[in-house]
Amino acid sequence: MEKEELLLIHGTDYKAMTKEILHAAELSAQIGARDKKIGIKPNLVAPSEASWGATTHPEVVAGIIEYLQEAGFQNLIMLEGSWVGDKTRESMEVCGYDRLSETYQVPFKDMQADPGELTECGGMELEICREAKSLDFLINVPVMKGHCQTKITCALKNMKGLLPNREKRHFHAMGLHKPIAHLAIGLPQDFILVDNICGDWDFEDGGNPVEMNRLIAGRDPVLVDAFVCQEMGYAVEEVPYIRMAETLGAGCADWTHARIRELNPPVSQVVKIGRRKVMEVADAVEEVESCSACYGYLIPALDRLKEEGLLEKLDTKICIGQGYRGKTGTLGIGSCTRGFATYLKGCPPTDEEIYHFLKKCIQEKEERI
C-alpha cells in the first residue's frame, strides 16, 4: 500500500472487514520483522459502548490482533489514555477491551499511568508517554467523528491519548491546533485504520451516531484527516492543524490526488448532512483554553436546554476554560471559574450536572422577575 492511497471497505461483520482490508493493504509486509514491538491505539475517550458513536469498536481491534498473530507477530500491546476527567480503566471495561486483552493475551497499557518524556516535535517540545515512544510500529485506530472545538477528530488528534494528562491540559492552553500538528512529528503513525462505523458527527463523546458501516485504511494521517474533512462537509482549512501538520512534513493534505480504492460497494448511500448542534449552541459560550472533556460535556447540556426552550432565556454568557483561572465574572462552568459569582465546580463537571446547574440558574432568574 502506497502513502498516497486510501482503502475503503463496507459491511457489518467488523472483524472480517478488518482482516480483509489489512490483507489488501499488505500490512504484514509494511511491518517487516516479526519481532517488532507493535502498538495498537484505539479511541477510548470515555466509558461508552462503541454504538454510542465515540469509541473504537473492539471487533475492529480484534481483527487487527488476529491478522497480526496469524502472520506471526507476537510482541503486541494495546495502549490508550482517556480524556481528562474519565479513567482509562473504566473505559477499557465498558468498551470491552479487558475481555479483548484476556482473549488474545495482548496487554492493555493505561497511558494515564505511564510516565511522560519531553520529546522534540518539529521545533516544539511535548511530553509523550514512554510506552508509546518504545514502539517499533504504531497502528492508530481512531473513530471518524466530530469535535466541539476542532470540528473533526480522527487520525492526528487521536494521538493525544498517548500523552500524560498534564500535557493534554497544556495542549488546550496552547490552542490545540499547533501542538496537535507538532505531535505528528514527534510521534509518527505507521498505519491508520479508521473506525467509520457509526461515529458521532457532533460530539467527541458520542450520543448522535451516524451509521456508515465502513472502515478506512491509510498510511498518511494528514491525508486521512483531509479526506475525513470532505466526507463530513468541511474544507481542510476549517481544521487548521491539518495544514500545519502538512507544512511540518507529516503528510499530504491534498486528498483529491489520493488513490481511493473501494474494496466493495456500500450497501446503501449515507446522507452526509446533519445538524451541527455545536454551532447551534456555541453562541451562548465564552471559551478560553478549555479542555475537551469540560467543553464536550457543556455542549450536550446546552443542546438539552435548547430543545426544552430554556437556552434562549439565558441572557448571560457561560464562561469556561483554563483562561479564566484567577479571574472574576458572572457565570462559569468548571473549577477554573471558581472566582465567578456563580459557578459549577468540577474538573470536569458532567453534562448532567451542567444541565441541572444551568436549568436552576434559569429558573431562579425567572422567579426573580
What features would you describe in this structure?
This protein is of the alpha/beta class. The chain has 2 domains: 5-262, LarA, N-terminal domain (Rossmann fold, 3-Layer(aba) Sandwich), CATH 3.40.50.11440; 277-368, no CATH class. It has helices spanning 14-25, 27-31, 58-70, 88-94, 97-104, 130-133, 165-173, 177-186, 221-231, 240-248, 277-281, 292-307, 351-368, and strands at 5-10, 38-42, 76-80, 108-110, 116-120, 125-129, 137-141, 145-147, 151-153, 191-196, 214-218, 259-262, 285-287, 318-320, 331-333, 342-344. Strands 4-3-2-7-10-11-1-12 form an 8-stranded mixed beta sheet, with helices on both faces. Helix 3 (58-70) links the parallel strand 2 (38-42) and strand 3. Helix 1 crosses helix 3, helix 8 packs parallel to helix 10 (240-248) and helix 12 (292-307) crosses helix 13. The model has no long low-confidence stretch (mean pLDDT 93).
Would you summarize the structure shown here?
The protein is of the alpha/beta class.
Write the CATH architecture name of the largest domain.
3-Layer(aba) Sandwich
- The helicity comes to 25-40%
CA-based shape: globular
Using the coordinates above, name the CATH class of the largest domain. Answer: Alpha Beta
Give the number of DSSP strands.
Answer: 16
Within CATH, the superfamily of the largest domain carries the name: LarA, N-terminal domain
Ranges where pLDDT stays below 50 over 5 or more residues in a row are none
Give the biggest beta sheet: 8 strands, mixed
Find the structural class using helix and strand composition: alpha/beta
**Whole-number count of domains:** 2
Mean pLDDT equals 93
Strand content: 15-25%
Strand order of the largest sheet: 4-3-2-7-10-11-1-12
Count of DSSP-assigned helices: 13
Organism: Blautia faecicola
Domain DUF362: 38-229
InterPro entries: DUF362
Protein name: DUF362 domain-containing protein
